[in-house]
Write a structure and sequence with these properties.
The chain is an alpha+beta fold and 145 residues long. It has one domain. It is built from five helices and four strands. The strands form two sheets. A two-stranded antiparallel sheet has the order 1-2. A two-stranded antiparallel sheet has the order 3-4. The longest helix has 15 residues. The radius of gyration is 16 Å and the shape is globular.
């Protein structure tokens, strides 16, 4: 399943975005943002709140990549690709698109609408396991729950 979460395999599953196969920015967004456990968890939370899943990471994406032209975030085709990346990452966790909705005000300069997802338990192929670490402020002892 680990190989599912590579940009190369994303392109294979979504050949209409083949032109981005060698695009370093698109690859970084997919592998280093969307495929991070923390981001997947946030996308699941936003989905459960009936908010667009992209809302969970659009601020980070725009902060890191708004001042470049390799994957222009103002371009509608590129924004569509971002949405398909989200859909692709959430799919093995059982999330399916149910509707489009406005992204809450103040989250994005470039994206106004994105997809909301719902969990269909019959479609779950993998699960996210959360691990929290606690560090004591007294002696810097670290432990997990």
């Amino acid at each position: 399943m680990k190989s599912y979460f590579t940009f190369k395999n994303f392109i294979k599953r979504n050949p209409r975005y083949q032109k981005f196969a060698d695009n370093d920015v698109a690859k970084k967004i997919y592998e280093n943002i969307f495929c991070k456990g923390e981001t997947i968890y946030k996308m699941q939370i936003f989905s459960n709140l009936e908010l667009p899943a992209l809302t969970a990471s659009i601020i980070e994406i725009e902060n890191k990549f708004s001042d470049q032209d390799e994957f222009n975030l103002k371009n509608n085709y590129n924004k569509s690709c971002l949405g398909v990346m989200v859909k692709d990452v959430l799919k093995p966790f059982g999330y399916v698109k149910i509707k489009n909705k406005k992204i809450p005000q103040g989250f994005s300069k470039f994206v106004s609408k994105a997809s909301v997802y719902d969990l269909e338990k019959s479609k779950i192929n993998c699960k996210l396991v959360k691990k929290f670490t606690i560090i004591s402020t007294n002696d810097n002892e670290e432990f997990s729950l």
